[in-house]
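Exercise 7. Given the components listed, write out the predicted structure of the assembled complex. Treat all entries as one system.
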Amino acid sequence: MSKADLAAAILWIGVTLYATFGGADFGAGMWDLLAGGSERGERARERIDVSIAPVWEANHVWLIFVLVVLWTAFPSTFSAVMTTLYIPLALAALGIVLRGSGFAFRHALPGPVRDPATRVFGISSVLTPFFMGTVVGAIASGEVPAAGDGDPISSWTGLMPVVTGVLFVATSAYVAAVFLVRDSGAAGDEELQRYFIRRALAAALVAGGAALAGVFALHADARYVYDRLTSEGLPLVILSGACGLAALGLLTRGITTAIRPLAVVAVVAVIWGFFVAQFPYMLPTTLRIGEAAGASATLTSVIVVFVAAAVTVLPSLGLLYVLSQRRALE
Amino acid sequence: MLQLTPLVADSASNLLAARTQMGFTLGFHIVLACFGVAFPAMMLIAEYRGRRHGDEQALRLARRWSKAVAVLFAVGAVSGTVLSFEFGLLWPRMMDRFGDAFGIAFAIEGIFFFLEAIFIAIYIYGWDRLSGWAHFWTGIPIAISGIGGAFSVIAANAWMNTPAGFTLGPDGAVESVRPVDVIFNTSTFHEFVHMWVAAYIVTGFVVASVYAVAMLRGRRDRYHRLGFVIPFTVAAIAAPIQLVVGDAAARDVFNDQPTKFAAMECVYETGDDQTEYIGGICKDGKVKGGIALPGVDSLLADFSTSTVVKGLDSVPPNDRPPSPTFLHWAFDAMVGLGFAMAALAAWFGFAWWRRRDLPRTPWFLRAGAVAGIAAVLTLESGWMVTEIGRQPFIVHGFMRTAEAVTPAKGIWWVFGLTVAIYVALALVAAVVLRGMARQWREEGDGAEPEAPYSPPPEPEPAP
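Answer.
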């Protein structure tokens, strides 16, 4: 494995963490939006708050990590993506601004503006993963030329980008619902647990449908990725499908142990399936990882920084997690 | 030619739009960045005092400040994310060519930002979940990562002023990089120290100004006094230090960025015995009006009136920074306000030395209330000098800002939307902070206003 491949893998680890945990936050925002104004909706909202309040910022720092690693280790790819997909990227950035501020402030605001803030939070939680998905779909289907300046509109409005966008939204909703099933179970609220089980199942159906549509879109628009996904990437796709189905099976029986790891593995496996399928390209099939990589010493710096981040950030996240689960000292 | 003209016009208007957009979002973020660097330190000073001396009021301040820190950090995280998108959306050609040199410092910054986000949440969660000093220690990483993050970002900015640590290939692309030289380029040290001290001045005076206003309105209890004295003392220590640091920074700029120095001092012709102008209009190679101090510019640049100061005439006209008068005024505003704040600090220091008390006249508190605004203006002026003074280059000597800008259309629309959203964001943050203050005032210690990252109220036990 070359240094450039290692840097690409680090980038992909960032993508995985952002898609899984950031995605779960987006999904929670979606359920918040769909919870309605009823008393049960209020309870669901409270549960969502308890679950994401301590970690919402940390989860989104992964996005900064991905952007920084991309522009440092693969500057030409960053520029090619930015000059082609600036419309969905700017919309995703807008979504991030609105989502972050909507969530941070919705409780602290006085009554009359609290509801609009909540709705802003919910709507941007749907739009942001959708536009992020169109960016990934556009890259996979070769819409981003290696030299940049691709078509600003048609690059991300084709079948593959749009299907990927929908898939991102549905997957986020699914992961979030599974996390919330577990959290409401831990809090001893069985009614709320059933509420989120139903939502997890609905999201799983939509995600499954989008994934199937994605297979056709891949076949049509991203043949290189499709071929590799059905050969080298196949074990990961099967792992993802098996875990997804197992989690579904458990959920329909009302069994909630192990659903969280199963759902996470299902998502992680498909993300890495994509990595394998795109390999050795940064932009299939015009720019290889080795060609896209920046100066050698820079790649070393990125790898060193990543190790330093893992050593310092993971234990800190662990401490935060333990604290957020602990009750107040008397 | 007919085809080309609109294209050129387009790119010129894009350049202005992109610079305006970048300048506005940076100018917004830099204020919040100051709070991210320095506010946690003040919160920890208050907590230390509270725990060491059993001072309930100080502990109360620390606890309340931690919630304000969270609000400001949440807004700063959002405006900072916007900036990382903007590097690509506005300046893709620069990132394409120099991303692997420019980016390294940002990769390091990522760790600090991450740790700061995590430990702010730990600190806030820890108020009721950790005991005594253990809680205090969870705050230390916030202050340290604030400083580390500032260092990294400043290193990247310094690199744009005095690029170093890379070799270009025959095609003009970066061929090899020496990361240590990139990070520790010649401007890193003075820019970092200048900004680090500035963060304490801005945060100190702004936080103190809130309590100064409260005291002027008659809330003169010990709690408000302490809320004024802690941040004000920090700023009052930093303000005179900044005069020395700023002076050293200006000499570094004189040595390493002579064009910027010429522009901010409005020096047109290279030569010794240069006149220092305070104010004045810089036009047509001359300074009109203003206060002229013969020889002083040379003296300040290198301790002797015979020091030769390079003028704007040392570079071709299209390599000179735009709007010389504005730049010169921004520099003078920074220096002038810096001296005014140091004078205020001296007044405070004198009264404290004589009587262990604040100066008695209400004019002192009035000045304290204004100092917050003055500190922010000083900060913004300084950054305008740095950034506009580097123009027309984005990477000094290597790439023009016009070469780096995106060809994408519609930036002015985005700018309009950004201004609207940021104004709304600033208003919301202000409303939230004021709402917290009101709740604390009316409900006393029982009040636990909800803030970002804070634990929700303990749920009712399930039946």
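Discussion: Chain B touches chain A through 79 residues (CB under 8 Å). Chain B has 13 helices and eight strands.
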